[in-house]
Amino acid sequence: MNATKVTEDIFKLTVNAEDILFEGIWEIPNGVAMNSYIIKGDKTAIVDGVCGWNGVPEKLFALMDSLNIDPGSIEYVIINHVEPDHSGWLESLIRIFPDFKVVCSREAANLLASFYRHTDNIITIHDGFELDLGKGHVLKFYEIPNVHWPDTMVTFDTLTGTLFSCDAFGSYGKITSAGYDDQLSEEEISFFEKEAVRYYSNIVAVFSSSVLKAIEKCSALPVKIIAPGHGIVWRKDPAKIIDDYKRYAAYQKGPAKEEITVIWGSMYGMTEKAVMHVEKVLEQENIKYNIHRVPETSWGTILASVWDSTGIILAMPTYEYKMFPPMAAVLEELCKKRVSGRCAFRLGSYGWSGGAQKELDEIMDRNRAKWEFIEPVEFKGSPSDQDLELITERVHQLVRTVRERVSNR
Ligand code: FEO
After folding, report:
1. In 100, 213, 273, 380, which residue has its Cα 20 to 30 A from 146's Cα atom?
2. Cβ-count burial of 368 within 10 angstroms (0-12 exposed, 13-18 middle, 19+ buried)?
């Protein structure tokens, strides 16, 4: 938890959330930073809040205290997005200091009524709406619906060129000391880039077309600083995170990077033998690959890995005439995130009857997933030498296809 100066009259209050499942689903092994911003013109505004995750924002009030900011002096509470990770503190603020005005989109006003029964002193914005805080800080607001909920907007400080982007351009990863790109080493930037892919694939992925529209809208603004609701602030190179987000959005339809993700599950080690063989072939091919076992690996980790990968290898046995159930659950989630345009290969063991392949075909057809599968390899019981030879050929074929897709992009 820390309070730092972003630029003239603008301060960032950061609280890290750890040991939780984000949105009650997503594992965040490296935590997530929750950012709130104070803008001090003649009038004081706060952009988004920091939920103490149980709805009690003592940490936010403590950070204000460290900056000598009296929460009672806040005239405007700007709600870029109502999801309670940003707005959960409102209930406490209303109880203690009720004399503030909320600035938000029309959709957000509806959500505030349903989430907190809060309907008083609300200013609803339209694109380009202006709010003058004094000392030159004229704020402008722009709606970016569905990044991440339909209510989302961004706030732009015209004086400093700071774009308060809420979920857009955010990442996972807790912030320890430096929360700014100009204070981080290349290695640390690379850490946040990985965390951004994980965050994007878990939280924002399904709204990728809205992300591209939002980027187009924001590109008309003279942005100098990007200050998101999660992750680091981009002061030195805001274009980097914008370009990264364009790339992440494009990965939804593929191709993504020249990488392969292997997702596998095994009951008694028969499919696992084939997976070990697949790994050897991938190593010979000298292609980057990520490998995840189900159900041991969380959906969030698998999603992040698949998001970056053009090639997917699915290895699972038949289970009760269907697919190994944890694999089916992961595939359904990938389809919900509308991951498409992947090159894929499936292999796996069966005992007395197949069934996994049939369910895989059903899932892909029902979701119109548009994955390009090469011929699968199924084997009875343990894979024979001939099965392994066939798997070798198919993995080489997949790698060739991945490389072609990426180079022809
Ligand atoms: Fe960070 Fe969609 O809330």
Report:
1. 100
2. exposed
Domain 2-251 and domain 257-401, same fold? Reply is no
Identify the residue whose tokens are 């392994």. 388
CA distances from 390 to 33, 274, 294, 395 (A): 47, 11, 24, 9
Q: Which top CATH class is 257-401?
A: alpha beta
Ligand 1 centroid, distance to 242 Cα (angstroms): 18
Closest listed residue to residue 221, CA positions, set 81, 147, 127, 134: 127
Ligand 1 pocket, residue 167 CB under 6 Å: yes
Give per-residue pLDDT as tens, 109-160.
999 999 999 999 999 999 999 999 999 999 999 999 999 999 999 999 999 9
Taking the complete model, does pTM exceed 0.70, yes or no?
Answer: yes
Q: Is the CB of 292 under 6 A from ligand 1?
A: no
DSSP per-residue string spanning 44-55: EEEES----SSS
| 8 A C-beta contact, residue 48 and residue 79 | yes
SS3 395: helix
Residue ranges covered by each domain of the chain: 2-251, 257-401
Task: Spell out, as residue ranges, where the chain has pLDDT lower than 50.
Answer: none
Ligand 1 pocket, residue 81 CB under 6 Å = yes
Q: Which residue lies with its CA nearest to atom 3 of ligand 1?
A: 83
Instruction: Reply yes or no on domain 2-251 having CATH 3.60.15.10.
Output: yes
User: How many angstroms separate the Cα of 198 from the Cα of each of 32, 47, 53, 362, 406?
Assistant: 11, 25, 20, 27, 21
